[in-house]
Amino acid sequence: MFRDRIEAGKLLGNALAFLKGKKDVIVLAIPRGGVPVGKEVAEMIGAPLDIVITRKVGAPGNPELAVGAVTQDGEMILDEKLVRMLGVSKDYLKREAARQVEEIRLRKEKYRGKRPFPKLEGKTVVIVDDGIATGSTIKAAIQTVKKTNPAVIIVASPVGPPDTVAELSESVDRVVCLSTPEYFEAIGQFYEEFPQVDDVTVKSILGT
């Protein structure tokens, strides 16, 4: 159990201490909840902080359950097994993806302004979130980052279910996850304090 995102970020930063002092390392946090965690990680390893914006595609009637996610570039990644199991229609997925693409556009404007996405080629990229559930948003972030030809991709999270962490390990160079409990319902259950992170907080951390 973590006290809050700040404590989780500090602990995650300790686990990533092997990156301290290395050149060409950048931390990319997933807004909004991943940004306070990413801030602590970036400070502890002495790396710049930026963001990669992804949005989950929620299941019909259960928006918290991700059946997929949309990448920063507008590409949709689906959990095909879950989509089939829930009988989610193509029309629903198309509508929901379009809605999330627009939300990503708005958040880019809000959080980045005119600042471009950082150049990642040849760098060690650490993708940070406040927790991993189905892994959809992390997968979308990985997809975005892979297109930029980085040297190394590391996924870092305070908590995530063991099967999802194992699956992610196959698509990146390393996954650093502090806790992998078998019983996993929601990320918030592993934090004493887990308030919604607002836009003002994100912009303040990013200095935009």
Number of helices: 7
Q: What gross morphology would you assign?
A: globular
Question: So, CATH architecture of the largest domain?
Answer: 3-Layer(aba) Sandwich
- What is the domain total for the residues? 2
Sequence of strands across the biggest β-sheet? 2-1-6-7-8
Query: How do the helices and strands follow one another from N- to C-terminus?
Result: HEHEEEEHHEHEHEH
User: What is the CATH fold-level name of the largest domain?
Assistant: Rossmann fold
Q: Could you write a compact summary of the structure shown?
A:
Helices cover 38% and strands 21% of the residues.
What does this molecule look like?
There is one protein chain. With about 210 residues, the chain is an alpha/beta fold. The protein folds into two domains: about 5-55 and about 115-205, Rossmann fold; about 55-110, Ybab, Chain: A (2-Layer Sandwich), CATH 3.30.1310.20. The protein has seven helices and eight strands, in the order H-E-H-E-E-E-E-H-H-E-H-E-H-E-H. The strands form two sheets. It has a five-stranded parallel beta sheet with strand order 2-1-6-7-8, sandwiched between helices. Strands 3-4-5 form a three-stranded antiparallel beta sheet. Helix 1 packs parallel to helix 2. The model has no long low-confidence stretch (mean pLDDT about 95).
